[in-house]
Amino acid sequence: MIYLDNAATTRVFECAVSAAEQAMRDDFFNPNVTYKSGVAVKNAVEQARARIADIVGAQPRELYFTSCATESNNWVFECGRKNKKGNVVITAGEHASVYEPAMRIKSRGTDVRVVRLTRGGIVDTDAFAAAVDENTALVSVIHVSNETGAVNPVKELVKITRARSPHALFHSDGVQGMVKCGERIDDLGVDFYSASAHKLGGPKGIGLLYMRNGVNIAPMLCGGGQENGLRSGTQNTPYIAAFASAVERFAEIDDRKKTAELRNTLSRMFISEGCKIIAPDNNSGYILCVYVPDVRAEILQNLACDKGVIVGKGAACSGSKRGNRVLSEMGLNTAESERCLRISLSADTDAEQAVQAAEIITECAKAIRSGHLG
Ligand code: PLP
């Protein structure tokens, strides 16, 4: 099997499996008790937090473990606005876990402004500047698009926001950007940043919310007061250990230049077969969105799967919905967006296998066009 759907999820690194296993089997104590065995587990949680913080560019106390990035994003929208009456600015390129919470607060009466994308898949900076004003309470901009890999200029957008609305809080969904973009979170200047372990060789069901020192948020989950009183619930110690191991391993083996070169090679192969690359510029290097003329992505995806190649066709969590909200915001119609494949790479993607996969995909596309599906 050649697995190229890493934007949906990644294979869990062996070191992360071992870390989780040890925490489940041996170090199973509750980290919030006062006897030594539990205190050791608490220390391991704090060490994991510090190891992640060191790599992603944050202070350990700025990172809060959550159950997933969806939770982190919802937390910011439900509890992260100081001025509940202020407006909220998001982009049309947000993942559903930002877009839907934004629509929920809109249905309760908040003025939610959705800023359009350029054809290149990033936020239109002029439209963004026009949307933010002195009454803006919260801004949320996806760091790297999960659909196309387009990288938003978050640092610049933070500056625009600070100049126009000194009280606005800035959130970025960094699920496809953390570690992969090589930018430190604290250097971006954001107030909040969400991430998830399963996009970096860690398990599903563990995420984090970065909260800049001095920024306040009300807890969404109240109870025993874990995570500095802000996110109650006994910490998922096995997955926290796995998260730290995965982030370390990813950062250690990742070669962003090589990944970007591989993406370019694959792009050229598809272009030479008459395909079009969506959002070709300013890309994270890990995601390649390919428009394959005359072939429905779902059929191509399934035929490729039969031949051992696994690729995506847009956000996995919106898999059952027709069309694609983000691609249509970039100017593609429904028929076009249904012909887009998403090929996504990871730190451990084998270049030769990826090239072989691209050949298999183009053969499958030809077979579908000519009606010879086998
Ligand atoms: N945000 C982006 C950009 C994503 O790609 C995903 C996952 O697909 C999420 C948020 C949700 O992450 P999680 O699965 O941890 O809830």
What does this structure look like?
- With 374 residues, the protein is α/β, with parallel strands linked by helices.
- The chain folds into two domains: 2-9 and 254-370, Alpha-Beta Complex (Aspartate Aminotransferase, domain 1), CATH 3.90.1150.10; 14-252, 3-Layer(aba) Sandwich (Aspartate Aminotransferase, domain 2), CATH 3.40.640.
- It is built from 13 helices and twelve strands.
- It has helices at 14-25, 36-56, 69-79, 96-107, 125-131, 154-164, 185-188, 237-253, 256-272, 297-306, 325-329, 334-337, 351-370; strands at 2-4, 63-66, 87-91, 112-115, 136-140, 169-173, 192-196, 207-211, 276-278, 287-291, 309-311, 340-344.
- The strands form three sheets. It has a seven-stranded mixed β-sheet with strand order 2-8-7-6-5-3-4, with helices on both faces. It has a three-stranded antiparallel β-sheet with strand order 9-10-12.
- Strand 3 (87-91), helix 4 and strand 4 form a beta-alpha-beta unit.
- Bound molecules: pyridoxal-5'-phosphate.
- Pyridoxal-5'-phosphate binds next to helix 3.
How far apart the termini lie comes to 18 Å
Broad shape:
globular
The secondary structure category is: alpha/beta
Number of helices: 13
Fourth-level CATH superfamily of the largest domain: Type I PLP-dependent aspartate aminotransferase-like (Major domain)
